[in-house]
Amino acid sequence: MRVPISWLREFVDVPADATAESIQAVLVRVGLEEEAIHASELSGPIVVGTVLEFVDEPQSNGKTIRWCQVDVGEAEPRGIVCGAHNFLVGDKVVVSLPGAVLPGPFPISARKTYGHVSDGMIASARELGLGDEHDGILRLTEIGLDPEPGTDAIALLGLDDYSVEVNVTPDRGYAFSIRGIAREYANSSGAALRDPAFDPALAELVQAPHSGFPVTIDDGAPVRGVVGASVFVTRVVRGIDATRPTPAWMATRLRLAGIRSLSLPVDVTNYVMFELGQPIHGYDLDRLSGGITVRRASEGEQLVTLDAQKRKLNSEDLLIADESGPIGLAGVMGGATTEITDATTNVLIEAANFSPVSIARTARRHKLPSEASKRFERGVDPLVAEAAAARVAQLLVELAGGTLDELGSSLVTPPTPQPIVLRHGFVNSLMGADYTDEEARFALEAIGASVRTVDGGLEVTPPSWRPDLTDEPTLVEEVARIIGYDRIPSVLPVAPPGRGLARAQKLRRAAANMLAANGLTEVQSYPFVSAASHARFSGDAPAIRLANALDAEAPLMRRTLLPGLIDTARRNLSRGLTELALFEVGTVFLPRRGVVYGSGPLPVGNEHPGEGRLAELDESIPPQPWHVGALFLGDRVSRQPGQAAVPSSLADAISAAQQLAASVAVELRVEQGNHPALHPGRTAEFYAGDAVVGTAGELLPSLADDLDLPRMVAVLELDLDALIEHGRREVVAIPLSSYPAATQDLSTVVSADVPADDVLAAVRQGAGELLEHIHLVDDYRGSGVPEGSRSLTFALRFRAPDRTLTAAEASEAKLAGLAVAAERFGATLRE
């Protein structure tokens, strides 16, 4: 929210010497985070001038310029070349003298043009940053000003004003207005507040007779049981001149608030929205057909909005309609058929209060955020609508020459704020600081609540503009905020001895550190996937579907990390990174088939919900285990002088899985597996004991092609929680032997369908304690090996802790391993 300071001063006493920084500091004390300071981009000298005379001079390029003599309050007039023709002799204009800088930046200097030396520039409203319209030179008399030549135009037009920008949290919609910010400034500084909604002159207009305009609220399908509109006020102003220029002070304030000046009637409605926080819409009364009905859209209805876009309406959309059909998306954007134009003379003013949920859904559905929807989504004061409509009428009468008509309507049935009992001592128990009942009462009355003493505490009725105050904790927050956060002591809790990271946390970090140390890059992806991606990687397994997805194309919670890793790889490939080794550690969501998840209403407040309720909450969410995934593509070793490129492969994924398992003290067994998205002959399953704990493999070539990935993409995913559960609680270090090792090779012949890892495990078991290390070095199928068999060669290293082994001892252990492999798989020694 951008707050022009001159506007703020109208409603609260800001010290004359206050700076932008000091104003922001005051607002920060009550929880409004500072964002930026916005000042005018122009600098002087910019003064008022009187056109003494001019000569029209046609040019060879077809243009006609005016050579003007302008009195700028100096001894001699200045000669200025001007291309505009909408001013007359005697007009008061704005002159930018040499040395001035206009928005852009656009520095002004004396320069020779069209055969003259132009000693300055006569400025338009657009060039001064007062609006987008460029109908020629800004004539001060048209906006009701008649200053003396030489008067500082920057101060005259309010161009020396500035605004401070603060961040408003979603629960404090009232602060999206000068009225709300003024209240917060008063609460923080103690300055006197003048609430513009209760201005006496405005009160007279609110009470002025207005009736007879037909308005019907017919919401047959309320969203979440809440009727779409609770307040609908209309007023009529006749005989306006919509072509009148917007006053400079108003255009400047709107610009500093972040809104460009469009036309006087539109600027007036925007001005009141920023002033009071109530969105306003104006209709050309003569283009309306009958009265107004607030209703839901019918299937198939369409509406052309003010941005000239034809929109297909949804049955949940709340509409403003007349007898001709829809004329606006309620609380979001008006329709083109009743738009106010320069030809408009009679205006119907609408000030309404709409359901925040309904407006939020419509704005997101149509991708149509607006200043109005931003306020309605966060909650608008339902009791300010009549004052806002009267304020718009007041400005249209004053600035556009209109006349207030008695035609209008007032349907006001806002929800009644419910009183909340704030128990004695509750503030102190929740905040950990000492507040008296008098301080609590003062803070709550300062925010506009009515407070009375009852048995056991204070009965607090929130003000109409604070729908976020619903229970005791929200009231406590207001007490702490208004009295000052500095009253809350800064005390660090003392950790009990022996506490720290849990075993699972330490091992998850160890696993991530191992992968990062091996050159993989950690990434984090969104846990949301599309239905197609879910089917591709998880088949028909059940998935959690979000009720209000951030992206309608990805409404499901992931069951696997692979879609996110693949999307990350695709994004990096599109940016020229062709050698990738990525990993992610994160949770997945594994609902059980046939189980309905959902907890119902959640506990509120600071009371313990009880063990039973906690158990119900745990059962209401699906299992969310931690997984670790990795992806490899491109070259593992880049081509370089004397070294050929080494491409990544499935072996890298399997090696990473084994190292990862070792980091959490688990031994993995590898077997051939299958996966719907992986190559059927190049997929491995990992076992810890008898449980499957993960998968590795190469993406199906057809899938890789569909996803614009290289043909070879190796992926890995392990259930990290399952690995940690199977890991050894205590790891015993084996003392290093100082005696030399004895190395031997063992070549066995087994059936081709026997997994090599099973043969390795059999040899390891049979070789006994003297075997220090074993690994597969060759898998041969061909000449010299029977059909349907293969030769597996293992490298073995033997060592004894207390002596030097003889070759005979090593051979005996090797043959003992072969014997076990022969018993289990019919393995024979290759000749």
Automatic annotation (TrEMBL):
Binding positions for Mg(2+) per the UniProt entry: 468, 477-478
Compartments in which it is found: Cytoplasm
B5 domain ranges (all copies): 415-490
Reactions accelerated catalytically: tRNA(Phe) + L-phenylalanine + ATP = L-phenylalanyl-tRNA(Phe) + AMP + diphosphate + H(+)
Essential cofactor(s): Mg(2+)
Any one GO molecular function term: tRNA binding
FDX-ACB domain: residues covered: 737-830
InterPro entries named in the record: aa-tRNA-synth_II/BPL/LPL, B3/B4_tRNA-bd, DNA-bd_dom_put_sf, Fdx_antiC-bd, Fdx_antiC-bd_sf, NA-bd_OB-fold, Phe-tRNA-ligase_IIc_bsu, Phe-tRNA-ligase_IIc_bsu_bact
The protein's Enzyme Commission number: 6.1.1.20
Domain TRNA-binding: 40-154
UniProt-listed Gene3D superfamilies: 3.30.56.10, Bira Bifunctional Protein, Domain 2, Ferrodoxin-fold anticodon-binding domain, Nucleic acid-binding proteins, Phenylalanyl-trna Synthetase, Chain B, domain 3
A cellular-component GO term for this protein: phenylalanine-tRNA ligase complex
One of the protein's GO biological processes: phenylalanyl-tRNA aminoacylation
Keywords from the named record: Aminoacyl-tRNA synthetase, ATP-binding, Cytoplasm, Ligase, Magnesium, Metal-binding, Nucleotide-binding, Protein biosynthesis, RNA-binding, tRNA-binding
Top-level taxonomic group: Bacteria
Cofactor remark: Binds 2 magnesium ions per tetramer.
Principal EC category: ligase
Family classification: Belongs to the phenylalanyl-tRNA synthetase beta subunit family. Type 1 subfamily.
Quaternary context: Tetramer of two alpha and two beta subunits.
Name of the protein described by the UniProt record: Phenylalanine--tRNA ligase beta subunit
